[in-house]
Design brief:
This protein is of the alpha+beta class and 182 residues long. It is built from 3 helices and 9 strands.
């Protein structure tokens, strides 16, 4: 497993429509492992492959709940959304220290392939449903900023640009914290 570099807002791959995975092989499983490793090192709850520069329809979600357990989402498709919505603050590892209130369905049902290429269906509510929708948005080239009003989006983009003043490129190294003493 490898902790990969994160692509930040402005990197073209974040706006790319990810291509479906044709076959789940060792390369895809390695990608899944790297996604989990990178997500955990960055202290995230989800990560899509294009956030590490790979435009494939692969994402992982782990909000710390066991039902369902951490999810591997290969070629995910939301097949059901609840009519009721919730608004909550979202952030993104690709847009550090930037947050906005996003309205999303409070429950989703998703079909996907797991790490072994087996199809499964999962239902999620609340925070996990939000994380799944956020990561699938990434696979479609959509960022949480796209769900905000034009005024709020412009405000956050201005703040983001100021925070990046003098920085070049759109890659961020993720440094895992050293393990504690035993």
């Amino acid at each position: 497993m490898t902790v990969r570099m994160l692509h930040l807002l402005g990197s073209p791959v974040l706006r790319q429509q990810a291509t479906p995975v044709r076959a789940v092989d060792d390369d895809v499983r390695r990608l899944v492992d790297d996604l989990f490793e990178t997500m955990r090192a960055a202290k995230g709850v989800g990560l899509a492959a294009n956030q590490i520069g790979v435009a494939k329809r692969v994402a992982v979600v782990d909000v710390g709940e066991e039902d369902p357990p951490p999810l591997v989402l290969i070629n995910p498709l939301i097949v059901e959304r609840s009519p009721d919505h919730e608004t909550a603050e979202e952030g993104c590892l690709s847009i550090p220290d930037t947050f906005g209130d996003v309205e999303r369905p409070s429950r989703v049902v998703v079909d996907a392939l797991d790490r072994d290429g087996k199809p499964f269906r999962a239902e999620a509510v609340g925070y996990k449903a939000r994380a799944i929708q956020h990561e699938i948005d990434h696979l479609d080239g959509i960022l949480f900023l796209d769900h905000l009003s034009a005024v709020k989006r412009a405000l956050l983009l201005s703040k983001w640009k100021k925070s990046r003043k003098g920085e070049k490129g759109y890659l961020k190294e993720v440094t895992p914290e050293p393990a504690g003493e035993l």
